[in-house]
Structure of Shikimate dehydrogenase:
Amino acid sequence: MVDIVRKRFGLVGRNISYSFSKGYFTDKFNSENFEGCTYENFDIPEINAFPEVVKNTPDLKGMSVTIPYKEAVIPFLHKLSKKALLIGAVNTIKITKKGKLKGYNTDYYGFKKSLQPLLEPHHKKALILGTGGASKGVAFALDELNIPYTFVSREASEKAIDYSRINATTFDNYQIIINATPVGTSPNVAAFPLLPYEFFTKKHIAYDLIYNPAETQFLQKAAAQGAKIKNGLDMLIFQAEKAWKIWNK
């Protein structure tokens, strides 16, 4: 009888019972016959509980990281990949044979790969709604695509404009609007970023990193004006498969 090698993986976050990752990887392990592999949620109230998760989970080989810990987890890691260091946010952790924790960012890869098929020559500039960890991967991907961008936040700062600054001229100048905030995520499906949606046109892309619901109010309102819309499901699948490769390389 062959001993099955046990490999555990999981997601670190807060209030993550809704999460895509657990279902996705569980289905993957079952359908592709990865015996001994399991994926679980590590729902922690604060990042200081993270070391205990690692310590108390034998056979742990890799972890995904979601909001609100993509930046907060970094001080607990031994090393970062070059791109994670540049981005300043981590959504994938590999645990080496020596027990060291190395952080990666696969969000930027997933976003970039899912956005590229939508791009046309007139899509020249982007607005990124939100300034948290998720927005950093988006910004890095846009840099690689040579698409200039501006951050939007509830309060203006050196790095971001606030929502009150967005008007018809903004929509003329920015043809890609990306929601990198959690506003509109289930169960708060009636919520949406406060934009003048009447200025969306068929020349705009509205991209929402949220995947549940499949069409947020943000996407519905943009689509009603003729905009091309995209949710975050493909991004999640692409980043998850990239994480799987990292855990197994």
